Automatic annotation (TrEMBL), chain A:
Family from the record: Belongs to the ABC transporter superfamily.
Protein name: Dipeptide ABC transporter ATP-binding protein
Ion transport recorded as keyword: no
Biological classification of the source: Bacteria, Bacillati, Bacillota, Bacilli, Bacillales
SMART domains in UniProt: AAA
Source species of the chain: Paenibacillus phytohabitans
InterPro entries xref list: AAA+_ATPase, ABC_transp_ATP-bind, ABC_transporter-like_ATP-bd, ABC_transporter-like_CS, Oligopep_ABC_C, P-loop_NTPase
Top-rank lineage group of the source organism: Bacteria
Coiled-coil stretches noted in the UniProt entry, renumbered to this chain: none
Molecular-function annotations in GO: ATP binding
UniProtKB/TrEMBL annotation, chain B:
Keywords per UniProt: ATP-binding, Cell membrane, Membrane, Nucleotide-binding, Transmembrane, Transmembrane helix, Transport
Stated name of the protein: ATP-binding cassette domain-containing protein
Family: Belongs to the ABC transporter superfamily.
Signal peptide boundaries: none
PROSITE patterns noted in UniProt: ABC_TM1 (PS50928), ABC_TRANSPORTER_1 (PS00211), ABC_TRANSPORTER_2 (PS50893)
Domain ABC transmembrane type-1: 100-284
GO MF annotation terms: ATP binding
Superkingdom to which the source organism belongs: Bacteria
Length: 331, 651
């Protein structure tokens, strides 16, 4: 633990990935079929990913956190912004050149049931990644795939299984293995445990932490379960309607949540202790439609502390204490 | 390394064996599929006739014999002769061969071209615009008309006919392939291939194509049949295969002038045509069923769309006031699956008191939902499930009721809400209509009155502007709103018991808190009992007064929430609790995770079902199943040999 923290401090000056003003807009036709309106799924998000850390990205469904992850890998082309990796802007690379960076940035998906080709045996699924990048001979690939199975806690006999013969937890291990077989430096994990049962969830989280230490990985951990994110992340960013509303070290965020939305999120988590009945802030209403986001601060329609200023003026991100940022007029 | 290679070889051998077994299984499934078998036999017959035509009919199909013209069927001429005295048997055999050849060539050609067009049009959006507009243009003409027009331009010949028919049938294949590509393209595993850096062609041919093949085979066989019919129609009109060449269409055309006196000239080619077309259609139907067995009807649908007739009123029993509302005793639910009969619920007993909120927890596959569905008898009792034991509701055993009586219990006395509200709501009716339907099914009230009640119910569940919302469709509402609507429908007839199956799992955490609060509020205000099925122990701790922990179809621990959370006795309960990351937990430690996963129901372990994953398991655990029993001096029931020791240890 100690060594990694020191590493962080040394490398903090030069982040592994620096995302600057990332925007992803979709145009959506209205019900009549004409007059296009714009959905700002991700609206100017900036953050750093430091080597060896886990950056947790939290938010409700529809807040743009998954779109953000996909934009970084250009699974969907970002509308605007920069993402510097080793001094190179990933978004400005031509498609062909970007392929070489694909090896370094990999992704783990949410649904272990649909993220594997149902007709392909596990071994082939793993080897294909190597074949695409022309790594090794077929025999070497097989051995590598089998080693990878071992690394993620499976047996060699799983090599010849089809995805439907495996349990959800085992499939998610395969998802990890497939992402890691190319030896990436950054792994973007899009809700990797939310489809799993609690016990399996904790198995996978433990595995991910172990692999991070062994393989020196950097995680962008996207999830809606704040308890899970807290456990695995070094730093956390909270997203609401396409914007980052708060960012801080995990401990600082939980000790002193600044943004009202963060406070609501924390208080909404059910606590498995019947003796501790807490005062819970229950939000009125739903997430506003991203087609027609509220003016000013996007959270003002549901915020218990909303003032007149919030309705008209968009708050900018401010550093409240070292490394703790929030975008709220109250600060 | 050599050890690894030896192991790899051994595994490969095992895989081969498995493949062989799978093939056997497929053959067995094929053999019970009557359409596929009959179709295949007929196809084999047609193929044999076509291949061995010269041996079956030794005469020359073109040899004119004017002396023997229009001879009725006899021993010498089994099918008779035609107006030129040509042997009809020979001509039908060669005609069948010609038609089958045309059909085969057209099916193959149009499938191949349609496949490529469909794959690329479905995959590349810009190409889609061009290719599919062309296909739509072709598709706009009736197939036969288009073929006639083209044949008129090209002139009759076998080659031209095949070419025309291919052009005619390509659009239908292309459309079907394209739509299957469009669905496949959106799946996560295709997205995963992109992250690995796979090229477009690799994704198209290696990952998308195999998924389209089954529909292609089915469609190909239908096109085979249709091509033969269109060929017959064209030849009949003289725009197909030129005259002396025998084809089924030509033979029918020849026969039409003599149909009153020499009906055999039409009869036998007609029969042959029916046979070939039937063979292909049966085969296509059979293969479709084989490759894509239609999904079983979902349980949720049946609940929401009840039968139109009003069920017989349910006579509530005269239960004593202190008796619990629901008493489940030794409930066993056996489900018939492909792998035999499995005990989804295996001797479950618990109670739900009046106005009580009871939580049922466990991982997926532990029988929580199966228990709930058994209470409402939602499984198909004719084919799928068998029940044993007792489910006493207000003193009456639900398992003894007739299906008709049971319908009046569902939605009226006991209601259920599900995890996914969207699939439980009917997309073509407004939510108001759906509540009215439920109300009027169980209560003799007018439409207007029911509508007023529906709006009232929506207001009760905290939906803003209920008058307006009642006129909206499910897709216009957010996930949280839909779950509120489901609750409103469930509450329509003021049930005494609400079964909530993972009601908040699909919702965001802030919405989750709202819905949970709503259920508890209704419980307090209306005195309605709630059976809350969830995997989230946090939800249980906040909402329930008692909790039942299930593992592999059995209750492993049950008791008062406070006691159980303070001092869990069963190792599984302890494991569940420790595996949750807590907001105040130590982040530097690993999470305590029970090893392994829930085995499937057809591979139940011997002895205690939790033994293979349990750290405390000994020989006794692995051989003898413990009973659910209370420890001396405690109220909590637990199914563990070591519970006494464990409770001492924890203390």
């Amino acid at each position: 633990m100690i060594t990694t923290t020191i590493q962080h401090r040394e490398l903090a000056a030069e982040p592994l990935l620096r995302v600057n003003g990332l925007k992803k807009y979709y145009s959506a036709a209205n019900q009549a079929g004409f007059r296009q309106s714009v959905v700002k799924a991700v609206d100017g998000v900036s953050f750093d990913l430091r080597e060896g850390e886990t950056y947790g990205l939290v938010g409700e469904s529809g807040c743009g956190k998954s779109t953000l992850g996909k934009s970084l890998l250009r699974l969907t082309e970002p509308t605007d912004g920069e993402a510097f990796y080793q001094g190179v802007d990933l978004f400005k690379q031509p498609r062909k050149a970007f392929q070489t960076y694909r090896r370094e940035l990999q992704m783990v998906f949410q649904d272990p049931f649909s993220s594997l080709n149902p007709r392909q045996i596990i071994g082939q699924a793993l080897e294909e990644a190597l074949a695409i990048h022309r790594i090794g001979t077929p025999k070497e690939r097989t051995l590598h795939a089998m080693e990878m199975l071992h690394t993620v806690g499976l047996q060699m006999e799983h090599y010849y299984r089809l995805p439907h013969e495996l349990s959800g937890g085992q499939r998610q291990r395969i998802g990890l293995a497939r992402a890691l077989i190319l030896n990436p430096r950054i792994v973007i994990c899009d809700e990797p445990v939310s489809a799993l049962d609690v016990i399996i969830q904790s198995q996978i989280i433990n595995l991910m932490r172990r692999l991070q230490a062994e393989l020196k990985l950097t995680y962008l951990f996207i999830a809606h379960d704040i308890a899970v994110v807290r456990h695995i992340s070094d730093r956390i960013g909270i997203m609401y309607l396409g914007k980052l509303v708060e960012e801080a070290d995990t401990d600082s965020l939980f000790a002193n949540p600044l943004h009202p939305y963060t406070q609501v999120l924390l208080s909404a988590v059910p606590v498995p202790d019947p003796a501790a009945r807490r005062q819970r802030i229950i939000l009125e209403g739903d997430l506003p439609s991203p087609l027609d986001p509220p003016s000013g601060c996007a959270f003002h329609t549901r915020c218990p502390y909303a003032m007149d200023r919030c309705r008209t003026e968009t708050p900018v991100q401010r550093e409240a204490s070292e490394g703790h940022f929030a975008a709220c007029h109250l600060i | 390394m050599p050890l690894l290679e030896i192991k790899a070889d051994e595994l490969a051998a095992r895989r081969l064996r498995l493949k062989r077994e799978n093939r056997k299984l497929f053959v067995r499934r094929f053999l019970v599929n009557k359409a596929a078998v009959t179709g295949s036999v007929l196809i084999a017959l047609v193929a044999a006739v076509s291949l061995f035509a010269p041996w079956i009919a030794s005469r020359d199909p073109y040899a004119i014999d004017v002396v023997n013209r229009l001879k009725a069927p006899s021993a010498v001429y089994p099918f008779g002769t035609d107006n030129f005295g040509r042997d009809l048997l020979t001509r039908v055999v060669y005609g069948t061969r010609m038609s089958a050849e045309v059909g085969f060539a057209v099916a193959l050609g149009s499938s191949a071209i349609g496949l490529v067009i469909g794959l690329y049009a479905g995959y590349f959006k810009w190409l889609d615009q061009i290719l599919m507009r062309v296909m739509d243009g072709l598709f706009a003409f009736p197939a036969v008309l288009l073929a006639i027009a083209m044949m008129a331009a090209l002139g009759p010949s076998v080659g031209n006919l095949i070419l025309c028919l291919i052009i005619v049938f390509v659009p239908s294949i292309a459309r079907i392939v394209r739509s299957s590509v469009l669905t496949a393209k959106e799946t996560t595993y295709i997205e995963a291939m992109h992250t690995l850096g796979a090229s477009h062609n690799r994704i198209i041919w290696k990952h998308i194509l195999p998924g389209s093949l089954s529909t292609l085979i089915v469609q190909g066989s239908f096109i085979f049949a249709e091509a033969i019919i269109v060929e017959a129609a064209l030849s009949f009109l003289g725009a197909g295969i030129p005259a002396p060449t025998p084809s089924l269409g030509n033979l029918l055309s020849d026969g039409k002038l003599y149909i009153y006196n020499s009906s055999w000239m039409t009869l036998f080619p007609g029969l042959a045509l029916v046979l070939v077309v039937l063979a292909m259609n049966l085969f296509g139907d059979g293969i479709r069923d084989l490759l894509d067995p239609h999904a079983r009807r979902s349980l949720t649908k049946r609940l929401v769309q009840p039968l139109k007739q009003r069920p017989a009123p349910f006579q509530a029993g005269s239960a004593a006031a202190d008796e619990p509302l629901l008493q489940i005793r030794e409930l066993k639910t056996q489900l018939h699956t492909e792998r035999g009969r499995v005990p989804a619920v295996d001797g479950v007993s618990f109670e739900v008191g009046k106005g009580e909120v009871v939580g049922i927890v466990g991982e997926s596959g532990c029988g929580k939902s199966a228990t709930a569905q058994s209470v409402l008898r939602l499984f198909d009792e004719k084919r799928l499930a068998e029940y044993e034991g007792e489910i006493r509701y207000n003193g009456i055993d639900l398992l003894k009721l007739t299906p008709k009586q049971m319908r009046s219990v569902r939605g009226n006395e006991i209601s259920m809400i599900f995890q996914d509200p969207l699939s439980s709501l009917n997309p073509v009716h407004t939510i108001g209509e759906q509540i009215v339907e439920t109300l009027r099914l169980h209560r003799p009230i007018g439409k207007k009155e029911a509508w007023t009640k529906a709006v009232e119910l929506l207001r009760l569940t905290g939906i803003p502007a209920p008058e307006r919302r009642a006129r909206e469709y499910p897709h216009q509402l957010s996930g949280g709103m839909r779950q509120r609507v489901m609750i409103a429908i469930a509450l329509a007839c003021e049930p005494q018991l609400l079964i909530a199956d993972e009601p908040t799992t699909a919702l965001d955490v802030t919405i989750q808190a709202q819905i949970l609060e709503l259920i508890l509020d209704l419980n307090r205000r209306m005195g309605m009992s709630v059976m809350l099925i969830t995997h989230d122990l946090g939800v249980v701790a906040e909402a329930c007064s008692r909790v039942v922990v299930m593992y592999l179809g059995q209750v492993v621990e049950s008791g008062d929430v406070r006691t159980l959370f303070e001092k869990p006795l069963h190792p599984y309960t302890i494991g569940l609790m420790q595996s949750i990351p807590r907001l105040d937990g130590d982040r530097s430690q690993e999470l305590a995770a029970v090893p392994g996963s829930v085995p499937s129901l057809d591979q139940l372990p011997q002895g205690c079902r939790f033994a293979p994953r349990c750290t405390y398991a000994d020989d006794k655990c692995r051989t003898v199943m413990p009973e659910l029993a209370a420890l001396p001096g405690g109220d909590t029931l637990v199914r563990c040999w070591h519970a006494g020791k464990l409770s001492g240890m924890e203390a």
